[in-house]
Amino acid sequence: MLKIGQFRQSSLRLYLTPIKRFRSKSKRNSKCAISVIGLSEVPHHGRCHSYMQLFHKLRLAHGPDPVESPRLTPHMVTAILRMNETAAQLSKGAVKEVQCNQLPANKPIEDRHVEGRLAGTDKYLFGVFDGHSGCACAQALKDRLFQYMAVSMADINLLNKLYQGKEIVASQLIEYLSTTAMDDISPDLASIHWQSLYQFVNDSLDMHGMESTVEEAVTSSFLRLDQDISTEANFHPGDEGLSEDLINIAFSGAVGCVAFIDGLDLYVANVGDSQAVVGSHSSDSDSWEATTLSNKHDSQNEREVQRLCLRHPNESSNILRAGRLFGELMPLRAFGDVRYKWQKRDLIHLTNLASQNSNFLTAYRDMKLPNNYRTPPYLDAEPEIIHYRLSPKDRFLILASDGLWDSDGMTVEKAVSLVGHHTEGQQVLGPYRPPENVLLGEISATLRKRKESIAKRAIDDNVATHLVRHALGLEHGCISAQLTLPEKLVRYYRDDITITVVHFNQEYIKNFGVLH
């Protein structure tokens, strides 16, 4: 065990070691925490006041202790884990069911998720957005990104309807699934959003007729929304509250992972460090296989670092420090975060504007520019898109924020295995009706497999909840300790967790060639 400090006073021995903490995306949340591993009793007369102060501080930073933490009953744990779970059954297209859940670490939670389909079609959209420096940008993506994607893929008739000023048409571009709870937006903010979308419609009409792929259309929608978020922050309509909202959205940031399913074509567009993985079942080996459909855009991705350095030659030693952009931001692609995108003069103008007003933009008065801020933008929201063709062996898609993937022991293979076995356990709950002309040996083998699957049946019907439970630990005491952490400490041990599991319609996939 690594010891980074050792103190002796009579029989006092403190062994200090770093604990695994939440890898925050922004610098201001990246404090280091240490835990007390061992402590022998100290006689009252021999106690040193400074050591007791140190011990008190260490205890404040101590991780969740499954023995000493407040104990929740199994029923209470389950009730907390199921608080935000949702599910929707579907009857058309490649998607059979969707299950979602969230577990907050921030208050309010900075993650968002959204599920829907292009109106009047069986083309599905699923998104997970992970905000940082607040939830404002992630909320904007939830509210707006699917509309931009719908416009980028719209035909000429729909574009003309939108261009004629039919704002109500824009609100009907997406049919949201019951798993999505859309929040109300102020009329003033909604009006600005419509103006930006209307201009995108106008530009799309001008470009109509030029052949574009799905990848190009999705990329266009991502980049345009990010550009509009930045442009809107420079719009000051005279309403200080509205102006501050627009600026907060732009300076807040978010990463996002979006899946678009059209027939058997699955496209995953990723910006940042959320991830998507397809779970497939191999009948030959009776095992579950994981296919990752996204790459993390951080300093551990050599291609991403090379991409950044090529755009800013001779600045690599300055813009990447301690694995973060300017030593501050972990993801190397993101929406918002205009602090790393605007020109230096624009950032200085904002700080001056904040300084001249007593109650306006107070959070930006002391904003410091990164050292050697020379050639912005250093950040963009261009998605990396991976196309995947569904086959009968593919059973589900997992979309999740890094709160799941960074939890102890969680890998894409483990997540797929957990979902796969959970699915097997749920499938055996229905009555078994053997097909006609089946042999007794086959019936026996099927019943034996059903019996094995019953043993795998999980506590939670919702598989997203099942994943959240495993992300917190394997033992009830560990989960209880995680759920009773004080608000000031929870961010050091886990992030917000958001999970969407999309179950594919096997019959649709098998019969796709015949139907189409």
From TrEMBL:
GO terms for cellular component: mitochondrion. Pfam families: PP2C (PF00481). Residues 92-504 form the PPM-type phosphatase domain. CDD domains: PP2Cc. SMART domains: PP2Cc. GO terms for molecular function: [pyruvate dehydrogenase (acetyl-transferring)]-phosphatase activity. Transmembrane segments: none annotated. InterPro entries: PP2C (IPR015655), PPM-type-like_dom_sf (IPR036457), PPM-type_phosphatase-like_dom (IPR001932). Signal peptide: none annotated. This is [pyruvate dehydrogenase [acetyl-transferring]]-phosphatase 1, mitochondrial. It comes from Plakobranchus ocellatus. The lineage of its organism: Eukaryota, Metazoa, Spiralia, Lophotrochozoa, Mollusca.
